[in-house]
């Protein structure tokens, strides 16, 4: 038998050998689909004498393409000059367009081969120009929102005119107009955005028979991995490239379709059978990756979905260790548990055959922070997929820049970074003018702003925008000074008046003792310049207080906590608008939470009430780190801009910002100053822990697609996190989350461990919120799971209960407890009790009985 067919089951052999005509290979996770593709490529070259460069294989990521290239090379065992083309859809399109885009020109007009590729920043600039031209305020219609719609339209192959015809409201009509201008502008600039790369290639291959035929002659064998995640333009591209020979092999698994938000369409699988009538459909049923326990567990979860064909998968790897479950008291402990588990695993694997590898998977990138910190404490090298480490992410850097400016507004780099982020109408020209002013006079950019405002050196619009920005930074600076609240109120009361009705809109009973007043002050300040529409921007809604006033400090914390939130509000000396505020608070005619943002996005548990906000500062103390962060997030409009963008990326950015607030809370507990916090952040972004050879990989569940690891951790198995709260109400969204869970579980070869934190800090709240176990945990049959020694402090149930009453136990919400001292959740239990054994050379502190908080301990070890 041909060596390429050896060790392959009959269905796989069929998939490898059926090289003529269309093949649809549909099979579950770990059944060897990708292996069939690589072997098929080798088979074509070695057995059929096909020229390597007439093979085109498309993968979902560049990494996968690279990996496949390596695999093929290894199988072929020789290094021929010609190589098959292994690419992603986008990289392939760039290749085609760089060569042939001019075939789309009409009468010498159109894009040239020197076209630019516009990234998101460029795209935004174009949209802004369009908005300006249409006299649409970019506050009412955010460029990011418009871009999201444009991208959606493009990926559904809807052009501006069709968009206009289908638009249901004036807003949509406006977007259609912007879309039209956007399109023309890009053409003028000889530029393509990412979506265009695909669309223009499709258009090219459709419109020019000559070009299409050339590519059909060139690429005679087409292979596509992860076919379930192709979107419509990709599907069209595939059919065009398949040409008359239709030697196309697509492999996929509908249970692993996890990119519908990018326009991936399950219909592509069904359409394939229609468009390629003589398709040979092959199903693989043996899973070679996972143990029976893991496979059964994953299959049971995905079986809950209704939108699926259903399939059988079996594995010869009978038994296997049970799926581990660990219920941590909190996120820190969860991360420590994972790190400790990994340490043991790596040590045990030492000296054994094969490279030990493991992965820590999570739903959103922001969850990496705690795991990263725990691994650092154990001195375990890790590799993080998904680009950057937490502190390198753009939004995190932006927020850190705001914090730097609060300390030092003359930091021009930080200033340049955020002066117009989020977009606030301070354009390139303004910044350039300011920088020129600064350069010629030797001032900092910050001082140049002051001069420009004082002497009215810029157009009024720019001056207004700069004034707002300056006030934002100044207010943040004021927060760092003692008695800042009073200073702030005195400051603003001097030069601002409260427009009618604004205070009522901004009424917020979630604030205890006088906090709302600051929000209103800020509103007054902002509305002065920008009009009432921005009033929502500035209403604080995070439920943090600016510290009790003198009067309020007489209320003991425990009384304050139980008292009506209106208490202390009538402190007229503190709040010039107190009468308005207290009136609305007593009336309670408004809903308790007023911010539009909160109404849209917060789950009730995210909204704090006076009860869960201890008065943790002495009167007159500077703002705490979390307070500062929340202030900046809110007042800068950063989070709101992301919320309006409403793309999955934007939501994950929001999560990152919230996570930064959590980091700040931790730092606050360690007693760090803002300076120390910023230094810590700067040091942690050093790439020192980055290693390609690291045996530990951290990544999101999405990024794990197609990969496999002997040991896999799935962390944060909590309702609202996974499934994500945004998808929980929508059945199709929920099914996609479940598929994502299936993808995650089926990455594991030998061992799968799922963890959950009983309390998780959300958005820097002082008190972590209690979580509800992910429904996916409950969907795994209990006989397949074992408890890995979750510490106490949970409802008592014996091992037998665990089997029979598992669901019941989970269904019961845990009593609301306070980590600062409740009966069933005491400080000592927050630590993962790692084994007391010799770990020479390790920095990790092993004490769980020193009485130090884990936060203190992590400080010891990070420093
Ligand atoms: P996914 O759906 O997760 O992308 P897949 O179907 O692409 O999975 P592969 O990654 O190709 O599956 O294969 C899973 C594992 O099983 C790999 O380690 C692969 O080498 C192994 N494998 C596949 N087929 C066989 C076989 N016939 N004999 C031995 N091992 C196999
Ligand atoms: Mg695969």
TrEMBL record:
EC number: 5.6.2.4
Annotated keywords: ATP-binding, DNA-binding, Helicase, Hydrolase, Isomerase, Nucleotide-binding
Comp. bias (Basic and acidic residues): 832-845
Catalytic activity: ATP + H2O = ADP + phosphate + H(+); Couples ATP hydrolysis with the unwinding of duplex DNA by translocating in the 3'-5' direction
GO molecular function annotation: 3'-5' DNA helicase activity; ATP binding; DNA binding; hydrolase activity
Entry annotated with the keyword Lipid metabolism: no
Protein name stated in the entry: DNA 3'-5' helicase
Family per record: Belongs to the helicase family. UvrD subfamily.
Domain annotation UvrD-like helicase ATP-binding: ranges: 6-291
Residues covered by region (Disordered): 588-624, 832-857
Species, as recorded: Edaphobacter acidisoli
Taxonomy of the source species: Bacteria, Pseudomonadati, Acidobacteriota, Terriglobia, Terriglobales
């Amino acid at each position: 038998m041909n060596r390429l067919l050896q060790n392959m089951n009959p269905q796989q052999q069929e998939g490898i050998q059926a090289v003529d005509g269309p093949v649809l290979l549909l099979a579950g996770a770990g059944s060897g689909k990708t292996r069939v593709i690589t072997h098929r490529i080798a088979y074509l070259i070695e057995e059929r004498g096909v020229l390597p460069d007439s093979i085109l294989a498309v993968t979902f990521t560049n990494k996968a393409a690279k990996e496949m290239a390596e695999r093929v090379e290894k199988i072929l065992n020789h290094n021929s000059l010609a190589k098959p083309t292994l690419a992603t859809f986008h990289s392939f399109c760039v290749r085609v367009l760089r060569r042939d885009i001019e075939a789309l020109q009409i009468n010498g007009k159109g894009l040239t081969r020197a076209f630019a590729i516009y990234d998101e920043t460029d795209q935004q600039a174009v949209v802004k120009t369009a908005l300006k031209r249409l006299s649409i305020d970019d506050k009412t219609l955010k460029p990011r929102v418009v871009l999201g719609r444009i991208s959606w339209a493009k990926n559904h192959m809807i052009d501006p005119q069709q968009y206009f015809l289908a638009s249901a409201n004036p807003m949509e009509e406006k977007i259609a107009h912007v879309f039209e201008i956007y399109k023309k502008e890009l053409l003028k600039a000889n530029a393509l955005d990412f979506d265009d790369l695909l669309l223009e290639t499709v258009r090219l291959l459709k419109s020019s028979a000559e070009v299409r035929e050339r590519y059909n002659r060139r690429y005679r064998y087409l292979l596509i991995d992860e076919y379930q995640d192709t979107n419509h333009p990709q599907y069209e591209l595939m059919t065009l490239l398949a040409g008359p020979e239709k030697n196309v092999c697509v492999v996929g698994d509908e249970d692993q379709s996890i990119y519908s938000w990018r326009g991936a369409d399950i219909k592509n699988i069904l359409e394939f059978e229609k468009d390629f009538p003589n398709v040979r459909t092959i199903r693989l049923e043996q899973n070679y990756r996972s143990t029976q326990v893991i496979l059964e567990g994953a299959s049971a979860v995905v079986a809950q979905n209704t939108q699926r064909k259903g399939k059988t998968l079996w594995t010869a790897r009978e038994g296997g260790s049970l799926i581990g479950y660990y219920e941590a008291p909190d996120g820190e402990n969860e991360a420590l548990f994972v790190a400790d588990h990994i340490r043991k695993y790596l040590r045990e694997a030492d000296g054994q055959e094969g490279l030990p590898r493991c992965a820590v998977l999570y739903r959103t990138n922001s969850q990496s922070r705690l795991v990263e910190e725990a691994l650092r404490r154990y001195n375990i090298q890790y590799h993080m997929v998904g680009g950057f480490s937490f502190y390198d992410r753009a939004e995190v850097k932006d927020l850190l820049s705001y914090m730097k400016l609060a300390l030092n507004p003359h930091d021009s780099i930080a200033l340049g970074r955020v002066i117009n982020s989020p977009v606030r109408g301070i354009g390139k020209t303004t910044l350039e003018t300011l920088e020129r002013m600064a350069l010629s006079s030797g001032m900092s950019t910050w001082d140049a702003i002051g001069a420009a405002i004082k002497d009215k050196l810029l157009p009024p619009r720019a001056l207004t925008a700069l004034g707002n920005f300056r006030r934002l930074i100044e207010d943040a600076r004021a927060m760092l000074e003692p008695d800042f609240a009073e200073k702030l109120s005195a400051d603003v009361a001097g030069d601002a008046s409260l427009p009618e009705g604004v205070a009522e809109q901004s009424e917020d009973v979630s604030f205890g003792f006088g906090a709302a007043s600051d929000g209103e002050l800020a509103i007054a300040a902002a509305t002065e310049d920008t009009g009432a529409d921005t009033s929502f921007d500035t209403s604080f809604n995070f439920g943090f207080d600016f510290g009790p006033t003198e009067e309020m400090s007489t209320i003991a914390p425990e009384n304050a906590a139980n008292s009506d939130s209106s208490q202390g509000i009538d402190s007229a000396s503190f709040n010039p608008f107190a009468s308005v505020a207290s009136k609305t608070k007593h009336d309670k005619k408004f809903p308790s939470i007023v911010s539009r943002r909160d109404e849209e996005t917060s789950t009730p548990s995210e909204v704090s009430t006076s009860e869960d906000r201890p008065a943790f500062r002495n009167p007159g103390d500077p703002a705490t780190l979390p307070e500062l962060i929340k202030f900046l997030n809110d007042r800068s409009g950063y989070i709101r801009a992301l919320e309006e963008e409403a793309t999955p990326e934007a939501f994950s950015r929001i999560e990152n910002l919230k996570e930064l607030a959590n980091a700040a809370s931790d730092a606050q507990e360690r007693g760090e100053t803002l300076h120390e916090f910023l230094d810590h952040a700067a040091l942690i972004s050093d790439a020192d822990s980055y290693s390609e050879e690291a045996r530990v990989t951290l990544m999101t569940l999405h990024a794990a697609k197609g990969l496999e690891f002997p040991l896999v951790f799935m962390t944060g198995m909590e309702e609202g996190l996974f499934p994500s709260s945004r998808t929980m109400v929508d059945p199709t969204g929920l099914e996609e989350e479940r598929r994502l869970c299936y993808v995650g579980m089926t990455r594991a070869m030998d061992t799968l461990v799922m963890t959950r934190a009983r309390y998780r800090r959300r958005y820097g709240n002082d008190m972590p919120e209690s979580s509800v176990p992910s429904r996916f945990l409950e969907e795994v049959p209990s006989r397949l799971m074992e408890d890995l020694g979750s510490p106490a402090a949970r409802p008592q149930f014996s091992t037998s209960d665990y089997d029979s009453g598992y669901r019941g136990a989970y269904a019961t919400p845990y009593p609301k407890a306070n980590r600062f001292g409740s009966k069933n959740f005491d400080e000592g239990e927050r630590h993962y009790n790692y084994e007391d054994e010799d770990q020479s050379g390790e920095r990790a502190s092993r004490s769980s009985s020193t009485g130090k908080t884990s936060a203190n301990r992590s400080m010891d070890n990070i420093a």
